[in-house]
Write a structure and sequence with these properties.
The chain has 8 helices and 2 strands. With about 220 residues, the protein is mainly alpha-helical.
Amino acid sequence: MSPSPRPHAASRRPLVLGAALTLSAAASAGLLEIPGNRGGLYQNLVFFLAGLYFRPLVERPAATASRPRLIALGVSYAAVLLAMTATGARAWPGVWPAVCVLATILGVTAAAQISRWAALGNALARLGRNTLPVYIIHMPLLALLHQALLPALSTGMDGRLRLPLTVAEPLLMSALVVWLCLTLHRGLLRSGATWLFDLPEKRDTGVRHALTPPPPFTTDS
């Protein structure tokens, strides 16, 4: 007797997306307890799912991106942020997810425009194919760097250094953390710790679906 067919995944999409959108609206409005970095997960889950379910809709603005549209979206996003800050609308349920939709379209359009510059676009594409180790490893590294750098950066610093450091530190820290994550990833793979980056084992068949490690990230064009 053959097993009964499972419900089609598409039929569950409205329910899953609706629940994720409700979670995002509640978290962004401060209606939920969000210890640690869970707030980002609560608020952004709906966007991960939207990218999974509606990939063609995401690819469409990328395929038709233009500089005038990028400028218009950038100006619109800046205006919306100013209006939201002035009115305190960030705390209104549903406002922040709606603003994030505009930010996503802006980001996709900007990425498409940048990709047309071959050298920069190819380097960012290689980095994009290596985001899993960065996503997994970066939080412990940030915690360690915070503990190491906080005393030096918060006490006895010349006031004239604060402004340039405020501008430069996020850029330098991001580059350092990404480099460290990718370096640790390569070391872990070479030492045989590939299981850290494998998908869970499918126990009903005993088949292990391993996530194929991406090629090492290099800065060569």
